[in-house]
Amino acid sequence: MKKLILLLMIAAMPLVVQGGERLKTQGASLQLHATSYNFGDAPRRGGDLVYELHFTNDGTAPLVLTRVVTSCSCLKGHFQRRPVAPGEEGIIRIVYEPQKSEPGVFNKVIQIYSNDPDGRAIFTVQGNSIEGGKVKIKNEKVKIK
Questions:
Q1: pLDDT tens digits, residue range 90-113?
Q2: I need a labelling partner for 23 at 20 to 30 A (CA). Which of 31, 59, 122, 138 fits?
Q3: Distance, CA of 47 to chain centre
Q4: ∠ CA(69), CA(122), CA(125), 5° rounding?
């Protein structure tokens, strides 16, 4: 049992720097290409908003995403369950459904679980859901005294 624990600890060791050069993480390593995305202003009844989050396995073993958990039912994360080989890229398709949420500014969190030694990565999406079909620009008249 002690040998198994020691082997697991060695396999989960972080990056090693040797001679100023960064070596790959032993085991799987989930590296997101971004940590957040802003959808900007979007009509609430204008349809779903989609963002493709790219990631890389920066480790030495296959990366397996196990689940994607979102902070509300208006947000979904779709991913392939196939392992991502070392050095390869994958995509998580994030879909925000503004009609299922209240109008106004939103900030949602996506938790990505995998066999990376950290176990979890966080990604956020923001935006402003506008009531009605079009984004309106306010035109105000200013009185000069």
A1: 999 999 999 988 899 999 999 999
A2: 122
A3: 21
A4: 80
